[in-house]
Amino acid sequence: MGAAAGAGAIAGFAPTKFAIAQPAKVRVGLLLPYSGTFARIGEAITNAMVMRFAQAKDMMGGREIELVKLDSEAAPPKATENTSKLVNSEKVDVLVGPVHSGVAMAMAKIAREEGVITVIPNAGADQITGPLCAPNIFRASFSNWQPGYPMGRVLAEEGKKRVALCYWNYGAGQQSAQGFKDGYADGLKETGGDGEIVKEIGVPFPDVEFQSVLSEIAALKPDAVYTFFAGGGAVKFVKDWAAAGLKDSGIELTGAGFLTEGVTEAQGEAAEGLRTTLHYADTLDNEVNKIFRRNYKEMWGKEADVYGVQGYDTAELIRIGLEAVDGDVGAKDDMIAAMAGATIDSPRGPLSLSPAHNPVQNFYLRKVVNGVNTVERIAVEALADPAKGCRMG
Amino acid sequence: MDLTLLLIQALNGVQYGLLLFLIASGLTIVFGIMGVINLAHGSFYMIGAYLAYSLTAWTGHIFWAVLLGAPLAALLGLVVERLFIVHLYHRDHLQQVLLTFGLILIFNEVQSIIWGDDPHSVAKPEFLEFSIPLTDVQSYPAYNLFLGVVCLALAGVMYWVVQKTRLGMRIRAGSSNPEMIQALGINTKVLFATVFSIGVTMAALAGLLAAPERSVYPGIGEQVLIISFVVVVIGGIGSIKGAFVGALMIGLFDSLGSTILRSMDHIELVSGLSVDNLTSVTIYALMAAILLWRPAGLYGRAQ
User: Fold this and answer.
1) Helix residue ranges, H only, chain A
2) Which chain B positions have a beta carbon within 8 Å of A39's beta carbon?
3) Within this chain, do residues A208 and A327 fall inside the same structural domain, yes or no?
C-alpha cells in the first residue's frame, strides 16, 4: 500500500488550481435519507462517517474533507435530480449514498455516465454490483443476495427438510430469497441431504397484514421459515409470530439479520432465541469493533449499529483512495485501483472487495439473547456475491 | 387447503375489516358531508398510535391512553379544521389534495422530531396477554379478538348516533343536501367542525386501539390511507353502513382471497403475477366491478 501511495504521489499529483497555500477541500457529497422512514439509517451512516473523518482531523491525503449533505428522502423519483445536483452543481469529488435500492439504481446510472467515484453505504440491490457494475462504483455494505445465502446453508446443514419462505415481495425481498435458495441448495449438495422449499409467500411491500400469512404457515407446518422484513414490519412480524403461538410450535423462524437489527427492544420477549445471519453483530468480539463502538457512543451518545459500521467503512474506503493519490482526486484510475485493492480491518471483521466492487466478508449466525444479537459462529467465511452479469470496464 | 384454514382466514378477514371500518368511517363522513378529500386522515391514525405509545408509557395502561387520547384527538381535529380545513370548503378537489398532502408532510416531520424514527411497541393490557388455541399449531391473540369486539361496539355507537340522534340527522341531511340544511338555518360552521373532529377522533381511536397489536413506527399512516379510500368508494361516499360493508368485504377478500389463490396450482405461471400482487389486483377489480354496477358505491346516493 505504501508503494502504491508513493507511486500515486509522483505519477498522479498534478498541482493545478490548489497548488499554492491552501489546497481546495475534497468535497464528499452525501445523498442519504434525512427524513422519513429511513432517516435513522441516514443519520447513523453520516454519524459514523463524520466520526471517521474527525479521527483523521478532517484531513485525508493532505486535503481537508468537506461534506455536502442532501436529503434523498429515500424517493426514487427524485434520485436522478438529486444526484445531478450533487455531481453537476455542487461538483462533489466523491459521491456517497444511498440507503434505498430504488434510489441506488438511478444514482448508479448517473455515476456510470459521469464517472464520479461513488461509494454505496447501504443499498443492497444486486444489480449495482451485477449488470450495473462500473469501475468507479463501490459498495461498503452488502448485496441483498448475501445475507440470505448463509441462512440457507445453515438450515440445510442442520437437516431442516421442509422450509417455507416469507418476504416482502419487492426487489430486496426477492433477491434475499434467491440468496437463501442458493445457499439451501448448496448446503444440501454438500451434506448430501434432501429437503425442499415447500412454499414461498410474498407480502406486498410495505404491508404488515400478517395474520392470514401466519395462518397459512401454521397450516403448512414446515420445519423452518426464512423471512425478509425490516423496521416496523420486522417488529410486527416477530410479535405476530409469537402471539399466534408459532414460537412454541416447532417451526423455527429465521431471517436475514434485518429481522432483529435495531428492533429487538420493540420486539421484546417475542424476539428471544431468533436466529438470523448478517455481516455484523453488535457483540462481535474483536478489538476494532470494541474501539469503534466505544468511540461512537462517546461522540454520539448512542449505540452504534450495522449502518454505522457501513458508514465507517465507507469513510475508510475514501481515506484509502485519497491517501493513495495524495489527495489528487483527478488521478481517478489510481484512486480506483487503491480502493478496489483495499483490505480493511473493519468492526465487522476482515473486509475486502470482490472484482465487482462488492464486499467480501464474513457472515455470522446470530441469536437474540436478552434483546442482543449475539454471535453463535461464522456461518460462511469471506462470502462473495456471485455478481451475475457484471462486466467491468 | 382445508376448512379449518378457511375458517381461520375468515376470522382474520373479519378482524382486519373491523379495524378498516374504524379508520374509514371517519374518512367517509368527512368526505361525504364536507366534500373534503382529506389525505391527512392516515396521519391522524398515526398520531393516535403514537399517542398510545406515549400515554401508555405515562399512565401505564392502554385503557387510560385511549381515554386521554380520544379527547386530545378531538381537540386536534377542531384546531386543524379551524386553521386549515375551513379554507377548503368552497375550493376544488385539487386544492384540497394539495393542502392535506402538505399536512401529511408536516405531521410526519413532527412525529420524527417528537418521537424519533425507531419502531416502538405498546404493551397490551395484562389480562389480554394470552392466546386462544385454534389448531394444534396456531393460536389466536386475545387482544385481536378484543379489538374486533371494540370495533364492533364502536360501529354500533356510530350507527346509533347517525340514525337516532339529532346530530346524526343533521349529518345525514348534510350528506345528502348541504345547501338545504344551510337554508333551513342549521349552523353548518359548527356542524362541519364537529364532523371533522369526529372524523379525526375515529382515525385516532383506530390508531390508539390498534397500537398494541400493530406496533408504532413511521409511515403507518400512509399504509392505511389508500385502502381506506377504497373502502369509502366501495361503500359509497358518506355512508357509514357502506363503510362497514365495504371494510368487511375488503378484509375478507384480502385474507380469504390470497389463501384461495395460493392453493391453486400454477396460478402464478398462468397469470404472470405473484399471489400477493394478484390479491391486490382482485381488490381493485372488486372496486371496479362494484362501481360499474353501482357508480355511487354500494350505499351511496347517485348524484
Assistant:
1) 2-12, 39-55, 76-84, 101-114, 145-157, 171-191, 211-220, 231-243, 264-267, 287-300, 306-324, 332-340
2) 112, 117, 218
3) no
What does the block give as the cell for A296? 461512537
Q: Across residues B40-48, what is the average pLDDT?
A: 96
CB within 8 Å of B105: residues ≥ 6 apart: none
Q: Work out how many CB contacts closer than 8 A connect A with B.
A: 128
Separation in Å, CA of A11 to nearest CA in chain B: 48
pLDDT tens column, B232-280? 999 998 888 999 999 999 999 998 988 888 888 777 777 777 888 888 8
In a domain, B250, yes or no: no
Q: Does the pLDDT of residue A14 top 70, yes or no? A: no
Q: How confident is the model at residue A21 (pLDDT cuts 50, 70, 90)?
A: low
Instruction: Give the residue from A211, A236, A261 with the most B CB atoms within 10 Å of its CB, the best one to mutate.
Output: A211
Query: Residue A191's beta-bridge partner residues?
Result: none
What separation in angstroms does the CA of A101 have from each of A33, A171, A196, B139? 12, 8, 30, 37
- Using CA atoms of A147, A149, A155, A156 in order, give the dihedral in degrees to the nearest 10: -170
- Tell me which residues of chain A, numbers 44 to 63, contact chain B at a CB-CB cutoff of 8 Å: none
What is the nearest CA distance from A235 to chain B, expressed in angstroms?
A: 7
Mean pLDDT of chain B: 90
Residue B165 C-alpha cell reads as 340522534
Of the candidate ranges A3-12, A259-268, A281-290, B67-76, the one whose mean pLDDT is the lowest: A3-12
Taking residue A192's Cβ as centre, other Cβ atoms within 10 Å add up to 6
Closest residue in chain B to residue A219, using alpha carbons only:
B5
| Contact criterion met (CB < 8 Å) for A235 and B119 | yes
Contact residues, chain A, for B119 at CB < 8 Å: 231-232, 234-235, 263, 266
Q: What is the number of domains present in chain A? A: 2
Higher pLDDT, A275 or B2: A275
The pTM of the full predicted model, rounded to 2 decimals, is 0.88
- Residue A391: inside a domain: no
Q: Do residue A136 and residue A150 come from a single domain?
A: no
First to last CA, chain A: 23
From the list A211, A212, A239, the residue facing B121 with the nearest CB is A239
**For residue A160, how many other CB atoms are within 10 A of its CB?**
21
Q: Is A220 part of a structural domain of the chain? A: yes
Instruction: Please state the domain count of chain B.
Output: 1
Q: Same domain, yes or no, for A262 and A177? A: yes
User: In this structure, are residues A234 and B41 in contact, taking their beta carbons and an 8 Å threshold?
Assistant: no
pLDDT recorded at residue A393 = 64
The domain in which residue B22 lies consists of 8-221
Q: Taking 70 as the threshold, does the pLDDT of residue A64 lie above it?
A: yes
